[in-house]
Amino acid sequence: MKIILTHEVSGLGAAGDVVDVKDGYARNYLVPRGLAIRWTKGGEKDVEQIRRGRRIREIATIEQANEVKAQLEGVKVQLKTRAGDAGRLFGSVTPADIASAIKDAGGPDVDKRRIEVKAPIKTLGAHQVSVRLHAEVAAKVGVEVVAA
């Protein structure tokens, strides 16, 4: 099935790309979550608008990405959340929480969709997350989760 991506999907493509995927993947995952729309001749006109929006938000060069990487890696991110006696959190830390904590710590504004958390963060302490800034540049950010 041919689809038009409306958001970046890891391993598949960026917003505005027209890709061919299995029918079930598109019908059951990508389209319901708003990550893609079905390809039509009318939808092809929307591709340019999606790409224009992507160019505005995107870090254009590797040099810019490296500058933002240096800023991110220099920021001490501390996230306060509710936790039980044993150090387990009530819920987990989401990429949106991490993005707002980076902003609060004086770091650059980061899109939550670019933050990759390997395993759900459900305990207090120091954790590492990755931020994809460019296709070739990713920043490692240390996040310290403390009890509020």
Automatic annotation (TrEMBL):
Q: Which residues form the Ribosomal protein L9 domain?
A: 13-40
Judging by the UniProt lineage, the source's domain of life is: Bacteria
Q: List, alphabetically, the InterPro entries matched.
A: Ribosomal_bL9, Ribosomal_bL9/RNase_H1_N, Ribosomal_bL9_bac/chp, Ribosomal_bL9_C, Ribosomal_bL9_C_sf, Ribosomal_bL9_N, Ribosomal_bL9_N_sf
Q: Does the keyword NADP apply?
A: no
User: What does the entry list under GO cellular component?
Assistant: ribosome
**Which SUPFAM superfamilies does the UniProt record give?**
L9 N-domain-like, Ribosomal protein L9 C-domain
**Keyword terms of this UniProt record:** Ribonucleoprotein, Ribosomal protein, RNA-binding, rRNA-binding
Query: NCBIfam families recorded for this chain?
Result: L9
Q: What does this protein do?
A: Binds to the 23S rRNA.
Family indicated by similarity = Belongs to the bacterial ribosomal protein bL9 family.
**Protein name in UniProt:** Large ribosomal subunit protein bL9
